[in-house]
Each structure stands twice: as structure tokens, then as C-alpha cells.
Amino acid sequence: MNIKFGFTQGLNVARLGLDETQILTACQIADRLDYDSVWVMDHSNVPQWKNAVVNDAWLMLAAIGASTTNVELGTCVTDAIRRHPSSIALSTITLDRITKGRAILGIGAGEAQNVVDFGIEFNKPVSKFKEQLEVIERLFDSDPDNHVSYSGEYYKLINACLQAKSIRKPRPPVYIAAGAPRTLELCSKYGDGWIPIGYTPELFRHHAEFISEKARSFGRDLSNFQFANDVDIYFTDDGEEA
After folding, report:
1. Phi and psi of 9, rounded to 5°?
2. How many domains does the chain have?
3. Domain for residue 238, yes or no?
4. How many angstroms separate the Cα of 206 from the Cα of each of 19, 76, 86, 180, 241?
5. How many CB atoms sit inside 10 A of residue 189's CB?
């Protein structure tokens, strides 16, 4: 088994109020220490922590990519509610191109916290998520010689294409945040990896088996599928404080 280690700029980093220079320095250190990946959360805000600095995930990943050379770079995780799936697809491809093939699209069904306060509807997120994944997948395969169409309940493509191809082939990997039967099934069908958050070993094993079983029913080979787990690790001399 090949175990990889990543470094996530998530909620518990944001609440420290670190500025961009501190974040970039931490990512450069992770790169030099041979971490496999760096991930950035994609939130509009985190109102529970007023001193948190919440930047745009894609711009931060581009800046991190420009100051590192080896680590893979992913969103942990974005959604296609605040941005159209076509924008998510193009941002992923662009990040992959400017980082010479290091981009990962980490994506989930979204959170009400990120959308409702901004007047964006948050209903039927999982049904929309399925269509978002299908639209992104089609656009990844598109080019000026291969226009694509899609007709869903929530999204449509009409002879559409993107005009940039990823460095990674056939496309950047898609890691899906999932923790309920419907999203786990979407992960097993469309994902190249799975990102659960804070799982116990028992729950991780149970849901990993669910993904594997569903993937087999779809005829998918998961030999290169990545099972991740986003967990918080605290360093302190005081065990009780940790």
C-alpha cells in the first residue's frame, strides 16, 4: 500500500488568522519536506471565527503552485453552486497547466453556510451535484474539435467546449467529498478519489467498502482510486491541551 501525506489549509488553519505570506511559507516547507499534496478549503466565510482570513481557494492554489515544485494541489473542497460547473472545469484545467500537471479537483455538494447568506438557492444539492459532475466530466473531454452537449434538469450544455487541455491525462483527478449513501454512490461512479472528513477507522472502513461495492456494480476498476481522510493533527507538549 502506497500511503501519501498531504497538508490542508482548512478551517482549523483559517481560524488562526494566518496571512498569505505565512500560508505560502508553510506550503513551501511542506514541498521541501516531500509532502505529497497541499489542499486549500473553499469557503466564502467562516463567521464563527471572526479573526479568520478566508481567501479565494483557486487564487491561493495558483500562488502556492508558483512557489512550489512538487506537491499536488487541490481544493478541499470546492462546490459548483457558487460557480457554474464550466468555471470549475476551466479553473481546474488552468491550475493543472500552470503547475505542470499537479492539479486535483476536490469537490462536494456544497454547504448552506457558503451560499444562503449570499442569496443563492440551496435546494436539492445532491441531485444538482450529480449533474455538476457530469457536466465537468464532459467539459474535461471537450475541445474545439469535440463540442459537447448536455441536457439535465438543472444544467445544460449546447454544443459547448473549453479551449485548454490539462497536462494530466486523460484529465486532472476528481476527489469527491462524500459521507451519505447518495454522495458515496456518486463518488464510486465519478470519482478518482474520496475525501471524508474526520472519520473514525471503523466508519472509514465501512464507507470505503460501500464505495468499492458500488464501483464494482458500475464495472469500474478502483486499482488507482485514492482513499483519503482529512483529519486534524495538533502538536503540543501538553497531551491534555491537544
Report:
1. -90, 80
2. 1
3. no
4. 38, 22, 33, 11, 31
5. 17
Q: How many CA atoms lie within 13 A of 179 on its CB side?
A: 15
- Domain with residue 206: its CATH number is 3.20.20.30
230 CB contacts (<8 Å, ≥6 apart)?
A: 8, 10, 39, 76, 195, 196, 197, 198
What tens digit of pLDDT does each residue of 30-50 get? 999 999 999 999 999 998 888
Flag whether 223 is in a domain.
yes
What whole-number distance in Å separates Cα of residue 131 and Cα of residue 160? Answer: 16
Place of cell 462536494: 108
Q: What dihedral angle (degrees, nearest 10) is formed by the CA atoms of 211, 127, 149, 171?
A: -30
Which of 95, 107, 238 minimizes the C-alpha distance to 168?
Answer: 95
Q: Which three cell numbers stand for residue 134?
A: 457530469
In sequence order, which ranges of the chain are alpha helices (DSSP H)? 11-14, 20-32, 57-66, 85-98, 112-115, 125-140, 181-190, 201-217
Residue 197, beta-bridge partner list = 230
Q: Give CA–CA dist 73/9, Å, rounded.
A: 11
Decide if 142 is inside a domain: no
- Claim: this prediction has a pTM higher than 0.85: yes
Domain range enclosing 48: 6-125+169-227
* Residue 90, C-alpha cell as written in the block: 476551466
* Spatial separation of the C-alpha atoms in residues 141 and 148, rounded to whole Å: 8
pLDDT tops 80 at residue 236: no
Would you say residue 242 has pLDDT above 80? no
43: in domain: yes
The one-letter amino acid code at 22 reads Q
